[in-house]
Design goal:
Distance between the termini: 35 Å
Strand content: 25-35%
Structural class: alpha+beta
Largest sheet: 10 strands, antiparallel
Number of strands: 10
Helix content: 25-40%
Radius of gyration: 18 Å
Shape: globular
Number of helices: 6
Order of helices and strands: HEEEHHEEEEEEEHHH
């Protein structure tokens, strides 16, 4: 059962490094206040075995700080920050490899691909920004879920300002229509107690780390120039699920 052994190793590493990440955050200069705001049922599995998991946080920060980073370039940097955090909190055991059309989450290096994604899609306007990676395959994905409609996305929505000079954003990390190989091959209970629990721990750590507004430089730089912003389509209106917009709009991939 190599997948279970791998999950055990990663869970131990992530648990140890979560404490390290929190200590680092406490020592570092924070710009925003981050509060976890998960929905009541943050992880659900439907009758067909598809998982939807949502972790969320609200960030309160100076209005000028938010305005300075509300650009497609910084949305792309937010995407890279997620992968950087994943690698750091696993001591580099997990990292991301890039190709022109794909992203590979690997254990140490290829060919040990845990998850592969199509290149990210970006949507942004004055109120909402979305980066979405569509799930392709990987050892953590069951055969039923390979290259279907599953995705991982980060959804950032501006909320009413809490006070003069302050701004608030709601950040969600969502995995949807994901068919875990562990649940299909061994059992849902094992999946919930290993891979699912690990995902929630790591995602909460990532959301809390955003209080520093330390956004990693993009490896691709698709929106490095201001004129590139015209290529970014609008997301669905705030309050509608982003996946509805994903179905209605053509795919836009950053290579």
């Amino acid at each position: 059962m190599p997948s279970i052994a791998l999950i055990g190793v990663l869970a131990a590493a992530a648990a140890a490094l979560l404490g390290f990440s929190r200590r680092l955050l406490n020592r570092s200069r924070t710009v925003a206040e981050a509060v976890i705001r998960d929905p009541a049922e943050s992880t659900v599995v439907d009758d067909n075995g598809a998982v939807r998991s949502v972790q969320a946080a609200e960030l309160t920060l100076p209005a000028e700080a938010l305005q300075a980073i509300w650009t497609p370039m910084h949305l792309e940097r937010l995407a890279r920050t997620y992968w950087r955090f994943l690698s750091r909190c696993t001591l580099g055991l997990i990292r991301v490899d890039y190709s022109e059309r794909e992203r590979f989450v690997v254990f140490l290096r290829r060919p040990f691909v845990l998850l592969s994604f199509h290149a990210p899609e970006y949507e942004m306007n004055a109120d909402r920004g979305i980066v979405r990676w569509r799930i392709e395959s990987g050892v953590l994905v069951s055969r039923a879920g390979r290259d279907r409609d599953g995705y991982l996305q980060i959804d950032v929505q501006r909320r009413p300002d809490p006070a003069s000079g302050q701004a608030r954003v709601h950040v969600e990390v969502e995995v949807a229509n994901f068919y875990p190989a562990i649940a299909a091959g061994i059992g849902r209970w094992v999946y919930k107690e290993t891979q699912s629990r690990l995902h929630v721990i790591v995602t909460h750590g990532f959301l809390r780390s955003l209080a520093r507004l330390d956004l990693a430089p993009s490896r691709v730089g698709r929106y490095a120039e201001p004129e590139d912003a015209s290529e970014v389509p609008d997301p669905p209106p705030t309050g509608r699920p982003a996946r509805e917009g994903a179905q209605a709009a053509p795919r836009r991939r950053a290579a």
